[in-house]
Hints:
Its main location: membrane. GO terms for molecular function: heme binding; iron ion binding; monooxygenase activity; oxidoreductase activity, acting on paired donors, with incorporation or reduction of molecular oxygen. Helix 10 packs across helix 12 and helix 12 packs parallel to helix 17 (453-470). This protein has a domain at 155-501: CATH 1.10.630.10. By secondary structure, it is of the alpha+beta class. Helix content is 50%, strand content 9%. The structure holds protoporphyrin IX containing FE. The site of protoporphyrin IX containing FE (HEM) has 25 residues, from helix 12 and helix 17. Protoporphyrin IX containing FE (HEM) binds at residues 3, 5, 150-151, 162, 310-311, 314-315, 318-319, 322, 376, 381-382, 385, 442-444, 448, 450-452, 455-456.
Amino acid sequence: xxxxYPSVEDLLFHLRNxxxxxxxxxxxxxxTITYLLSTPRRRIHIRNGESDAAAPxxxxxxxxxxxxxxxxxxxxFSFLKATNSTKGCYDFVRLRRSWYGKCFKTRIFGKxxxxxxxxxxxxxxxxxxxxxxxxxxxxxxxxAVGEKSLLCVPHDSHKRIRRLxxxxxxxxxxxxxxxxxxxxxxxxxxxLHESGETFSVLQFSMKMIFDAMCNMLxxxxxxxxLRTLEKDCTAVSDAMLSFPLMIPxxxxxxxxxxxxxxxxxxxxMIADRRCGKETHDDFLQSMLQRDSYPSSEKLDDSELxxxxxxxxxxxxxxxxxxxxxxxxxxxxxxxxxxxxxxEQISIAKHKQDGAPLTLEDxxxxxxxxxVVKETLRMSNVLLWFPxxxxxxxxxxxxxxxxxWHVNIDATCMHFDPALYKDPMQFEPSxxxxxxxxxxxxxxxxxxxxxxxxxxxxxxLLVFLHRLTSGYRWTIQDHDPSLEKKAHIPxxxxxxxxxxxALNDGK
Length: 506
Ligand code: HEM
């Protein structure tokens, strides 16, 4: 996924691309100075590079604890180390929180980052998005997904583009998507079961989601074409947060080339539809039907093409990772798995053999929805949501300065024992109760709330239904290690499973 989340995430891509070189440079120029000047547990309060340990913050606010280290370098080295480990990059945050408390500041690649983990801070930032906070502009991101992407456009265009894109992602519009996804999934699971082979849930989900999205957006169904597109979309996604240097062999170069190929394909597709050579009942057609509307009520071609790409990239990795984690968590809580299976089998029993799931069926999956929510709470597909601070402000009582980066730390909130009892337990029934506002934010909130939220929830429900009402599974590799250098937490193994058909399922 892109997710399109600049700031700290871009560093992850940078280091994925240039890890060795950066490590060397950082080691040579800074390690000695950094470690001489500071120790991990010493709290040095530096603002804009100057020590201000004694300086009180404005408006009764406090200076935020944390270590900035020497200018530019800061704690980049530690961040790289955490990211390159199988514990995942969040370990960097976890460790600092144990030293400094819930809110802390750090400096990575020259930028000051503050981690804020409270529902109050989340509310303040989300409700003032575009006013006091904004996503940082990342050149490589705009070059890769396009300047007209929802992720890159300024406020006014964002409002219009989002409004025009939103309808196909509303619940009623997703009914056809659900049926198609269900049909393909059912066939694929059957085949995998019959073959008896072990398969990676992650790889399986990545392919399923990609194919289903391309079908919904552009009615593309031909497998070899889909694989070509997927390869190019992955290259674009990898380039989004890389160094923007057009040198052959680099991720950026490969991504830009892949983008050019994708744009040529989209362009031809649009032309074929306009001249009547092809017509389909899909997202692209619904957008082209607005051709005669005033400009405020339609997307121009570059907006359309950039956002087709954005939707695919934003939807695939996120949803696939959540699917993988749901299998893992349900495997660990057999009671929750049994309760889910019971609900899903009772829904299957009321349907005719082979009939696809409808939105009505999905609405009946009350326990299923709790499993989806609990999976999203624990998996934290997007660990934190970064914003650049546009005006000096106070968050959670701490003075925050213009130009700093604040990261809404969803992961910390989702594991906060004050908000979730026994937070490390996978317990779907905790969602029987209403949660405190802004304490459950897997899809963000405010004007940038995930556009594909409904689609992701429905996809997960269909997946859980087919899996639990039709099969039991055995995980073949229980290694808890995470993928290295990844910005979305995913098991390194991809969660390989084998399937066994249930006699009492349909
Ligand atoms: C489990 C799956 C998913 C998760 C956890 C997720 C999470 C998120 C989050 C947290 C944001 C907001 C980030 C921020 O505020 O900085 C976001 C934005 C976005 N998501 Fe998702 N997402 C998922 C699936 C999808 C899908 C399936 C699609 C598209 C089909 C999608 C499209 C988008 C888009 C376009 C945005 C940008 C919205 C904007 O800036 O206005 N996402 N997602």
